[in-house]
Amino acid sequence: MIPVNMSELSRSDAQGLLSLLQSEKNLVGTTSPVELVAFAVALIIAYIAGIFAAYYLKRHFSHRIKKDHLDFWIRAVRVFFVIAAIAITVPPFFDAGIIMVFWISVASIAVIAFAGQKVIANAVACLAIMYERPFTSGDFIMIGDASGTVVSITLFATMVRTVRGVIVHIPNDQIYTTAICNYHSNVARRYEYDMNIRYQDDRERAVSIIKGILEGFTFVLKNPAPEVFVSDIATSSVTIRIRVWFPSVWANTQDDISLQTSILPKVKTALESADIQVPFPQREVWFGNVPPPAGAEGSVHKKV
Prior knowledge:
- It is a single chain.
- The chain is of the alpha+beta class and about 300 residues long.
- It has three domains: about 5-115, no CATH class; about 135-180, SH3 type barrels (Roll); about 190-275, Alpha-Beta Plaits (2-Layer Sandwich).
- The chain is built from ten helices and ten strands.
- The chain is elongated.
- The chain starts with 5 loop residues before the first helix and ends with a strand.
């Protein structure tokens, strides 16, 4: 138990309090009144310095750094000032020199590092993520099996809101060591669609109709220009591939453009109006044990 000099604290006259503050007598344990006042003043100065530092950082970096990143650095600076004030004023409380406090701090850090390797790894990964900026709040990303919009980036984890509205906490060290797909990092995204037409349909006409639909669509980028071409000759159809670039600002899901636009229904309607149909799968079955009809040679086959 820390001894407290109650006789000194009970003095209520101004002259007595002034002499008490200027004395070297132990007031709490081995701590003198001067040391207690220095501790309180140091904390106040650290708090005020943190306020000025926050004002400076907001004024000079608010247009350069994302808000959540800036808030993190402001908190880090304010905590640093408080820790520095405590480290400077607390050692006299225990009659400990700066060197002893240093070695005690080193030993404490080593114990904490050994016991909380995962926590430290997450904190270091957070600093690396904020330095490299592979994503920011509001970006739609995919990390492993998790995908969604980044809500916030904290010291130990990143919060992602999935398309179902579920908030997923992903440890920062897992993010830093996993491949990240950012659907917002580029200003434009390319989408690919496949349309199948019949063998007897005019392929050049189908390509021309699809290009006309794309040219009249508002959000299709002109540069890079859309691409429409025959990509495959399938077993029962001819495949026409459509490559279109859209602004990335729409990318709130992996395939958000398809959900928010009517480009595919318009293409289908235009092709059907030109009597270009989507084919049904067809298969030819050969019956080798059925005798051929008169005038035919070989086996009989039926188309189904």
